[in-house]
From TrEMBL:
Protein EC: 2.3.3.16
Species this protein is from: Natronoflexus pectinivorans
Organism superkingdom: Bacteria
Transmembrane segments: none
Organism lineage string: Bacteria, Pseudomonadati, Bacteroidota, Bacteroidia, Marinilabiliales
Family: Belongs to the citrate synthase family.
GO biological process terms held by the UniProt record: carbohydrate metabolic process; tricarboxylic acid cycle
Record keywords, A-Z: Transferase
UniProt-listed PANTHER family: CITRATE SYNTHASE, CITRATE SYNTHASE, MITOCHONDRIAL
Keyword Disulfide bond attributed: no
Gene3D superfamilies (alphabetical): Citrate Synthase, domain 1, Cytochrome P450-Terp, domain 2
Keyword Transferase: yes
Protein name: citrate synthase (unknown stereospecificity)
């Protein structure tokens, strides 16, 4: 058993016992009152999930196992002191609940590089059978499903595995799946945008650095950006669409490939992960319609108001939980101001940040007028030469695997049962309205 799995076994055994005891002792305690309005507007604020990997505070933003993003950037192991933390370290933190040392992070890098070599040939054939014009998220998700032929979990289940062992093949499958996503992503990217000229992985590189390398963006600067990107998008507690969908499908004991694929189908929606691509289209149209890369504050305001008048959303702004500027936006802006302060797209993003919150607030209905992670991520990638917008949501998905798949392992450690909430009819809700 590898060292990460061994540590997981130790912490997992004790936590799963604690959970059983909690339910035994306090299972009947009432948690909260739920209103008709909450249920009928996306269940916002309804506590319905157990997720240990991260927690989102409406004002402060995300904390991973209690650590804020600035804390992570200071504490997680890096390749160089002035570099960005390695996502491998965040994976370990989310999985085990402890900040790893550099040797452990190096072990995970090597383990993932080794496992990445095991992608079966048919996966690339399946991708190649799709039209080159198919959106990269279609190709990505198809590849994820095609990889499920290798599922340890399915094999072990068919062989009659004991319930208490579910977490073990789940861990193996998750490690395989995470290790392989950069290879799949770079394959799709090079296939769609660089004339099929594929680049072999460099097993000496870390997981995110290798992704940048295989995409053909192998400068140290691009690798540093990729590490930051992979850390920032990794998790956002359990209720967001990609995390919730992965978890839900996993409760049917679907293997990690099926479960993650469900999450990625959700990420592909324009109100979730595809917002990063939508932002770039919105910016492109703004530049085209106004006729300059340096529009005035008033021109941006008019453009934003027109978007709202057309009954559309301003992508990259708003959030279901956050009520302040997303720290994932601020961290990227700080990074950009440090390394590429003169990049025109970054200057445009900064100017939009001065204007759009007021425009959204003036509608009187938008609960959070502030930018989210997607308001800047595409502009940053583009400024570093990764200019092909359709790959942005795939990159989001590669990062998101770290959090949602870690939670999937924990779901099996905790022995989470099938999720099956009740639904009611319109008439039933109407009756409740009259009664209360
Ligand atoms: N532009 C225009 N209208 C917006 C808006 C925006 N950016 N954000 C919210 N609204 C509207 C929303 O459509 C709703 O209108 P109706 O009452 O007419 O239906 C109203 O304001 C109240 O919505 P809310 O309660 O403030 O937001 P929700 O919790 O329902 O939705 C978001 C949250 C993220 C879906 C929403 O803010 C949005 O559509 N934003 C733009 C898309 C986006 O950037 N998504 C990415 C979110 C990101 F963090 C991620 O998942 N990657």
């Amino acid at each position: 058993m590898d060292q990460v799995k061994q540590r997981l076994k130790e912490v997992g055994e004790s936590k799963s016992e604690q959970l059983k005891e909690l339910v035994r002792e306090h299972g009947n305690k009432v948690l909260q009152e739920v209103t008709i309005g909450q249920v009928l507007s996306g269940m916002k604020g309804v506590v319905a999930l157990l997720t240990d990997t991260s927690k989102l505070d409406p004002s402060e933003g995300i904390r991973f196992r209690g650590y804020s993003i600035p804390e992570l950037r200071a504490k997680l192991p890096k390749i160089k002191e002035d570099g960005e933390p390695l996502p491998e370290g965040l994976f370990y933190l989310m999985l085990i609940g402890e900040i790893p040392d550099k040797a452990t992070v190096d072990f995970i890098s090597q383990e993932w590089a080794r496992r990445a070599q095991g992608i079966p040939d048919h996966v690339f054939k399946v991708i190649d059978s799709l039209p080159i014009t198919a959106h990269p998220m279609i190709q990505f998700n198809t590849a994820i499903l095609a990889m499920s032929t290798e599922s340890h979990f399915r094999r072990a289940y068919m062989a009659g595995m004991d319930k208490k062992d579910y977490w073990d093949p789940m861990y193996e499958g998750v490690m395989d799946l995470i290790s392989r996503l950069p290879v799949i992503t770079a394959y799709i990217y090079r296939r769609c945008f660089h004339g099929q000229k594929h680049i072999k992985p460099d097993p000496s590189l870390d997981w995110a650095g290798n992704l940048a390398h295989m995409m053909g963006h192998s400068s140290e600067e691009a690798k540093r950006l990729m590490r930051l990107y992979m850390v920032l998008h990794a998790d956002h507690e359990g209720g967001n669409v990609s995390a919730h969908a992965t978890h839900l499908v996993g409760t049917a004991l679907s293997n990690p490939y099926y479960s993650f694929s469900a999450g990625m189908n959700g990420l592909a929606g324009p109100l979730h992960g595809m917002a990063n691509q939508e932002v770039m289209h919105w910016l492109e149209k703004l530049i085209k319609e106004i006729g300059t890369e340096t529009p005035s504050v008033d021109q941006i305001k008019d453009y934003a108001i027109t978007t709202l008048e057309q009954g559309r959303v301003i992508p990259g702004y708003g959030h279901a939980v956050l009520r302040k500027t997303d720290p994932r936006f601020s961290e990227q802006l700080d990074f950009a101001k440090k390394y590429i302060p003169d990049a025109p797209l970054i200057q445009l993003v900064s100017k939009i940040y001065e204007v759009v919150p007021d425009v959204l607030a003036s509608t009187g209905k938008v609960k959070n007028p502030w930018p989210n992670v997607d308001a800047i991520s595409g502009s940053l990638l583009s400024s570093y030469g990764i200019k092909e917008f359709p790959i942005y949501t795939v990159l989001f998905g590669v990062s998101r695997s770290l959090g949602v798949l870690t939670s999937l392992i924990w779901d099996r450690i905790y022995g989470m049962p099938l999720e099956r909430p009740s639904s009611q009819t319109f008439d039933w809700f109407g009756e409740q309205g009259k009664n209360k």
